[in-house]
Amino acid sequence: MTRDEVLTALRQTRVFGSLDPTALGELAAVCVARTYRREAFLWYQGDPGDHLAVLVDGLVKITVASERGDEMVLATLGAGEVLGELSVIDHGPRSASAVAVRPTTALVVNRAALITAMQHSPALLDALLRTLGGMVRRLTEQASDLVFLDLGGRIAKLLVQNAEWQSAEPARRLAVDLHLTQTELAQMVGASRPAVNRVLQGLVARGLISVNGRTIEILDAQALRRRAEL
Questions:
Q1: DSSP class of residue 193?
Q2: CB 128 within 8 A of CB 118
Q3: What is the distance of C-alpha 24 from the center of its chain?
Q4: Cβ–Cβ contacts within 10 Å for residue 169, how many?
Q5: Greatest CA span in the chain, whole angstroms?
Q6: β-bridge partners, 59
Q7: pTM of whole model > 0.70?
Q8: Which residues pair with 211 in a beta bridge?
Q9: Averaged pLDDT in 10-residue chunks for the chain of 230 residues
Q10: For a tag on the chain, would you pick the N or C end, based on fewer CB atoms within 10 A?
């Protein structure tokens, strides 16, 4: 990647977009571009947290695994997203794995460079704190959904929220491409693949959604939101 491409990628993030040109240029100078094939790990759960990654293109899923090998997908992140900031801030091991869902390019920023940038930029520190706060809120919401919503409600909520995030003009009919298999979707909502398939087919039968591969069209967003109790 050229220097201009690196600067553009950093500017498009909420974390680094607030840096002044000089600080942004210094950070860009120490970024390293890396590419990952589909299903390659950016890092594993338990690895040292010595860098963060800025996604330039592609898609990454964040997963946690139990000692038995059971896996849960916490989130999917795309271009313009920053990941790995928690371990960089507290210098602890990775709390989750990061896996490329499709071919992905990322900019790697090492911890030393990030700490230096934070010392010179209160705006960067504020942005990182906001990012960490958003992460805690999202995980708290996911935990409460597992307790208070049934499987149908969790799936309906996931579909509506992702469709609205992907749509510039939310309307009654929305389409969502989670870029996930039904197995991975099941891992996001804490269920088995057959159970998720039954819920999706039930929503299809009720005329709330249509399914075409990994793309799901929401035919009645209001009804789906009611099912999700949003």
A1: H
A2: yes
A3: 24
A4: 5
A5: 57
A6: 78, 102
A7: yes
A8: 216
A9: 94 88 89 96 95 95 89 89 91 94 95 87 86 89 90 91 65 65 85 92 93 85 85
A10: C
